[in-house]
Amino acid sequence: MEYFVQQLINGLTLGSIYGLIAIGYTMVYGIIGMINFAHGDIFMIGSFIALATFLALVAIGITALPLILLLTLLIAMLFTSAWGWTVERMAYRPLRGSFRLAPLITAIGMSIVLQNFVQITQGARVKPLQPQIQGGITIMEGVTENGTIAVQLSFMQMIIISTTLALMIGFSLLISKTPLGRAQRACEQDQKMAALLGVNVDRTISLTFVMGAALAAVAGFMFLLLYGVIDFYIGFLAGVKAFTAAVLGGIGSLPGAMLGGLLIGLIEVFWSGYFTVEYKDVAAFSILAIVLIFMPSGLLGKPEVEKV
Amino acid sequence: MTSAAPHPSLLAESVKDAAVAAFLAAVLGFFFFALRTDIGTGGLDLTYRWGLWFTATAIVFAVRLALNLLVFKTRNPVTQHIKITASESTLSGIGRVLGPVLLIVAATLPFLVMWLFPNRDRQFIDLAILIMTYVMLGWGLNIVVGLAGLLDLGYVAFYAVGAYSFALMAQYFGFGFWMALPLAGLLAAMWGVILGFPVLRLRGDYLAIVTLAFGEIIRVVLLNWYEFTGGPDGISGIPKPSFFGLEFSRTGGFAEFFGLPYDSIHRFVYLYYIILLLALITNFVTLRLRRLPIGRAWEALREDEIACRSLGINTTNTKLTAFAIGAMFGGFAGSFFATRQGFISPESFTFLESAIILAIVVLGGLGSQIGVVIASVVMIGGIELLRNLGFLKEIFGPDFEPTQYRMLIFGLAMVLIMVWKPRGIISSRNPSAVYKERKKIGSDMVAQGEGH
Amino acid sequence: METAMNTTPAHNWDHNVVLSVEHLTMRFGGLLAVNDLSFNVGRGDITALIGPNGAGKTTVFNCVTGFYKPTEGRIVMRHGNDLQSEKVEALTRTGRQHDIGKDSAVFLLERMPDFEISKRAKVARTFQNIRLFGGMTALENLLVAQHNPLMIASSMTIGGIFNLPGFRKARAEAIDFAAYWLEKTGLIERADDPAADLPYGDQRRLEIARAMCTRPHLLCLDEPAAGLNPRESTELNQLLQYIRRDHGTSILLIEHDMGVVMEISDHVVVLDYGEKISDGNPDHVKNDPKVISAYLGVDEEEVATIEEIAEDLPEIAAKAAALKEHKGEASGQAATAEPPAAASEIVVEGAENHPGAQPSGLRQPRSDKPDDLTRVKGIGSVNERKLNALGIWHYDQVAAWKKKEVEWVGSYLAFPGRIEREDWVKQAKALAKGVAGKKSGKGGKS
User: Fold this and answer.
1) Do residues C245 and C359 both lie within one domain?
2) Quick check: is C387 in a domain?
3) C58 touches chain A (CB under 8 A)
4) Are C142 and C167 contained in the same domain?
5) Which domain holds residue C315?
6) N or C: which end of chain A has fewer CB within 10 A?
C-alpha cells in the first residue's frame, strides 16, 4: 500500500512534466493541425537555458534559493519563448496553407537542427546538477517484512505538482476568458473566417507557439531539478511521450493533454515499479495504441463523425 | 515584406531588418554561445565565450544584410538570373531522359569510380552502396506514403526486422544471405500485417504517432531482450553474401575461381550490385503495381477513402497490402544492411533513421521514383561529403571538427528544401492508364493522403 | 393509404421491388434523423427521395449504402425478378448477410460493410459534394471503379505483375468499358485529364459514369442536379433515362430540383423530419397537401392559420382540410374560423383585439403591380396573401411601419416578435430601394 502511494506520487510528478509539454503539442495541433516535432527539443532548449541561468545567477552572487529559482524560471520561460517563436517563423510560417507533410518534415528537420546545435555549442556530455531542493515530508509509514517503508512527498514534488496545477488553471482562464484565447479558438475553428473577422491569424499562431514554448521551459526546468541530469537528447523521448499524452487525452483538448500526461507518467512509473523498468516505454506506447484503436479520438477528444 | 513605400532607401531598410535579426540571434544564442556549462571539479562550471557570441551575432547580421541587399528587399534579386526553378514540364522532360541515364550510370558506377578515383574507390563505392540502400528504402516507403498516402513514421521497424531476421537466422541456423533474404522479407511483411491490422483504421496523424510508437517498441525490445538479440551489444559475425557459393576470401574464393588477383574491392563491387539489383526490383515492382488494380486502388485511397469504399474496394485489405509490401522491401534492405555491416545493434534503427527515409520520400516528391533517387543522392551523399572537409581545419583551427556539423546541416537542408519546394523536387504525377494522350498531372491536384 | 387513394392497379414498386427499406430508424445520440421509415424502390424505376433540408434524405442514403449502420430496421436488396419473401425471412432469421442463388439473390444491406454493398449487392452511389479522385484522370477514376473484376483478372496481382495475357485482355476490356461510359457522359475528350480539372457539371457526370462502371443494379444519386445549369440539367435527365432504359438499372435519387424530379421520376417518396409524409407517383405527390405545406415553406403556426383564408382560396382550402384531417385535429374548427377580410375593406374585424396600430392599407396595388412580398425573409406566400388582404402590397408600405404597426401585424399574423427578429422593415427598405424584382419564387421559408 505504501509502495503504491509512493509510486502514485512519483507518477503524478512525472506526469505533470509530460502534461506541461503535451499542452504545447495539443495547442499547436489544435490551431494549425500539425505535429510540432521540434517541441520536445524546445523543452530540451528550455532545460539548458534554465541550467545556464541557474549557474549564472549563482555565479553573480545571488544566494537566496527561492529567488534564484523564480528568476531562473522566468528567464527560461522568456528565452525559450523566443526560440519557440523563431522556429515557427522560420520553419512553419512559410509553409502555412501548404500540404500537410511539408511542415511535418520541416518540424523533423528543425528537431535535428536544435539537437545538433545544442550538441555543438554545449557539448554532447550529460550535465549533472546537484539536487537543489532537498527534504520533504513523510505522509505515511508502514511496516513490511523488509522493514519500514516511508512514503515521502518531497518539496520538489510539491513544487512541481503545485506549479503545474497553477499553470493549468492560469492557462485555462487565459484560453477561456481573454481575447487572445478567443482568437485562438476562432483560428482553430476556421482560420480564413477568423482572418476576415479581424483576427490577426499569424500573430495568434505565433503566440500559441510562444505559450507552448514557455510551458515547455517550465517543464524543462522541473525536469532538470527533478532528475538533475540533462543532455541534448532528452527532448526526443520526452517529446514523443508528451505527444503520446496529448493524443491519449484527445488532441486539441487542454485538460485532455494534462490528463494524458498524468496517465503516461503513472503508467511509466507503475510499470517500472511493478514490472520491469526496461519496458516502461513499451508499456506507455502500447497503452497509446490500445486506446487509439478502441477510442480513436482519445479520452477527452471530440468524437469524429465521418462526413459522407 | 515592405513593398508599400517606393524606395525608402534600400540600405537603411536592410540594415534595420538585419539589426532585428542580429538582435534575435543574440537573444537566442546568449545561453548557447555566450555561456557554456561543463563538468568541472565539484559540479558544473560555467565558462563565458563573449567572443563567440559576438561573432555569431555579427555573422547573422552580415548574412542577413547581404541577403536583404541582394535577394529579399531589392527589386532585382540576383536569384532572378538563376533558373533554379525549372518548370515542372522541363523537369519531367528531363525526367524521361534522366531515368535511363541514371540507370546506365548506376550500372557502370563501380568501374567508373575505379577508373576515375583509383585511390579512393573503396570509399566511393561504399558511399554508393549507402546511397543505394536509402534509395531502396525510399522506394519501399514511397509505396506506403507516396502511393497509399499512409503516414508511416516507424518504417525503420521493418528495416530492423529484416536485419535482425537475417542476423538471427545466420546465428542460430547458419543461414546464408541468399537463403535468408526472402525469409527476412516475408517476416518483415508479416510484421507489417500484424502491426498494420489494428492501426490502419486510424486516420492521419494518429496513424503516424502509432507507427512511430511501434518503431520505438521494436527498438526497445531489441535493446532489452538480451538473451535473444544480444541487447545493446548487437549481433556480430553476420556472414557476407557469396557469389553462387564462392566466398570473397583470399584463397579458394571468387578471385581464384575467375583467375583474378585477390582484391578486397571485389566484395564491395559485389555488394554494390546486390543492392542495385534489389533496388531495381523494388522499382520495377512498384512501377508495375502502380499500373495494376491494386496500385490504382492505393492511389485512389490516397485521394478519397470514402469514395473507394463506395466503389467496393476493401480499404483495410488495400492498406494492409501497401503496408506489407512496403515492409517487405524494408526487410530486404535490412537484410542487406546486416550482411554489408557484418554487425548490427539497435543503435542503427532509431527514429532518426525513419525520419531520414521519410524526408527522402517527401523531399523527392511523394510518389515520384526519380525524386527519391535525387533526394537520396543529395541528402545522403551530401552529408557524407561533409566528412571530407578536413581542409576546413586549416581555416578554423585544429579543434574544428566538420563532421559534427553534418546533422546540423542535414536538418537545415531539410527545412530549406521543404520551404523552397513544399511538394518535393519532382511532384507531378504520371497517370497509370492512358486513353489517348499521356498528360502529367500537376501537383496541386494530387492529394497527399489522410487527415486533411 | 396509398392503395386506398388510387384506383389504378398496384404500382410497379409494390410487386417488382429491387430495394425495400423497412422500418428504418437512425439515431445520432439524441437526434432522431430517420424515424420508422419504410418505402420500396421498384425495379427499373426512377425513384426520387425528396424533402426539405435536414429531412434525413442523405442519412437514408448512407444507411442504404452502408456508410451508417441503422439503429433499427431492415434494408433488403433483391437481384432477380420476384419478391423472394420466404428467402428474405429465412435470411433474417439466420443472421447471415446474403443468400445468393443462381438467378436471384437477396441481401440484407444493414448487415453488410459498405464496400461489400457495392461489390456484392451491386448498389452504387454518388455523393452530394462530389468525391472524385481529383489527382487521377477521368479514365483512371473509371478503372478504379472496376477494381474488383480487375483484381480477379490479375489473379490478385500475381498474374498482373508478370503481365499475363489474361490480365492484358481484361485490362483492355476495362478501358473499353470506361471509354463507353465516358462516351455516354460526353467526357471522352477529357479522358486523360485529371478529374479535379474538369468543370463542375462534368465532374457530376463523371461521378455517375464512375458509379456505373461498378455495373450496379441500383444507382443511388445524391443531388445529381445540384449546381447544374438548365442545359446540363436536361442532359442529366437524358442520361438517367438512358441508364434506366438501356441498362435496366434502377435509380434512387435525392433531388431538390422539382423540375428534374417531376419530369423523370416514376415514384416519389417525400420525407420531412425523418418521416415519410407522402409516397406515390409524381402527380399524387404534387397534390398532396402535406407535401405542399412542407414545400411551400409553411411553418407550424402558419399551417394552423391556413384555414383562416380558406374561403378565398378554395384550392388551399381543400389542401388545408386534408392536412387537418391528417393531423387528427377536430375538423369542426374550420367552421369557427374567423372569416377572411375582404380585400376591398381595409378595416379588419377584431382589429382592436390586437395591440398596437393597424397599418394603413391600399385598396388596390399601385398601378396594379404588387411587389413580391415573399422576398422578405419570413414572409411566405400565405402571409403574403394575408398582408394583401390588409392592403399591404408594396415594400415601401412595410418599410414605413413603426413600432406600433409592427406590434399589431405581429399579433395579427400570430407570430409576435418575429417581425422584429427578422427585421422585415429593414429588409423591406432595402427591397424598396428599387431592387429589380425577381420572379416570385416559392421563397420565404424561414
Assistant:
1) no
2) yes
3) yes
4) yes
5) 288-340
6) N
**Whole-angstrom Cα distance, residue B246 to residue B257?**
8
* C-alpha span between A194 and C379 (Å, rounded): 33
CA dist., res. B417 & res. A33, Å (int)? 21
C96 vs B112, C89, C90, C112, CA distance in Å?
66, 11, 10, 9
d(CA A51, CA A217): 11
Residue A306 DSSP SS3: coil
Q: How many domains does chain C have?
A: 4
**Which chain A residues are within 8 Å of B419, Cβ to Cβ?**
91, 94-95, 106
CA distance A105 to chain C (A): 22
Cα separation, B193 vs B181, whole angstroms: 19
Q: Are strands C250-254 and C46-50 parallel, antiparallel or unpaired?
A: parallel
Show which of C206, C232, C261 is a domain's final residue. C206
Query: How do residues B180-212 score in pLDDT, each as one tens digit?
Result: 899 999 999 999 998 888 877 777 777 888 888
Count the Cβ atoms, other than its own, within 10 Å of residue B179: 14
- Whether C13 and C87 share a structural domain: yes
Question: Do C147 and B313 lie within an 8 Å CB cutoff?
Answer: yes
Indicate the residue type of C213: C
Please provide residue C110's backbone torsions phi and psi, each rounded to the nearest 5 degrees.
Answer: -70, -15
Query: Is the CB of residue B278 less than 8 Å from the CB of residue B302?
Result: no
> C45-93: per-residue pLDDT in tens?
999 998 887 788 889 999 999 999 999 999 999 888 777 788 888 888 8
Give the ipTM.
0.87
A227-236, A271-280, B49-58, C211-220: range with lowest mean pLDDT: A271-280
Claim to verify: residue C112 and residue C238 sit in the same structural domain: yes
Helix runs in C185-310, H state only: 200-212, 230-247, 258-264, 282-286, 289-295, 300-305
Rounded (5°) CA angle B98-B102-B108: 155
Q: Contacts of residue C62 in chain A, CB cutoff 8 Å?
A: 308
The DSSP bridge partners found for residue C383 are none
Cell numbers representing residue C163 in the block: 503481365
C431 pLDDT above the threshold of 50? yes
One domain for residues C118 and C11: yes
Question: What are the contacts of C280-286 at 24+ separation with CB within 8 A?
Answer: C280/C2, C280/C5, C280/C6, C280/C11, C281/C11, C284/C5, C284/C6, C285/C50, C286/C262
Report chain A residues touching chain C, CB-CB < 8 A.
305-306, 308
Q: Which of C115, C132, C211 sits opposite B314 (nearest CB)?
A: C115
- Residue C211 resides in a domain: no
Model pLDDT, residue B182: 93
Return the top range by mean pLDDT from B401-415, B436-450, C207-221: C207-221
Pairing of strands C267-272, C275-280: antiparallel
Nine-digit cell string for B47: 565558462
CB proximity list for B318: less than 8 A, separation 6 or greater: B148, B294, B297, B298, B301, B308
Pair B339, B272: CB distance under 8 Å:
no
3-state class of A279 per DSSP? coil
- Please report the sign of the dihedral spanned by the C-alpha atoms of residue B150, residue B151, residue B157, residue B159: positive
Element (H, E) at C277: strand C275-280
DSSP C35-50: EEEEEEEETT-EEEEE
Nearest to C192 among B321, B436, B447 (CB): B436
Q: Which residue of B has its CA nearest to A116?
A: B408
Which regions of B23-166 does DSSP assign to beta strands (E)? 35-40, 43-48
Asked if residue A219 lies in contact with residue A227, where contact means CB atoms within 8 angstroms, the answer is no
Sign of CA dihedral B157, B162, B168, B171: negative
Q: Where are the alpha helices (DSSP H) in chain A?
A: 2-32, 39-59, 65-87, 101-122, 155-177, 179-189, 191-196, 201-227, 234-249, 254-274, 280-294
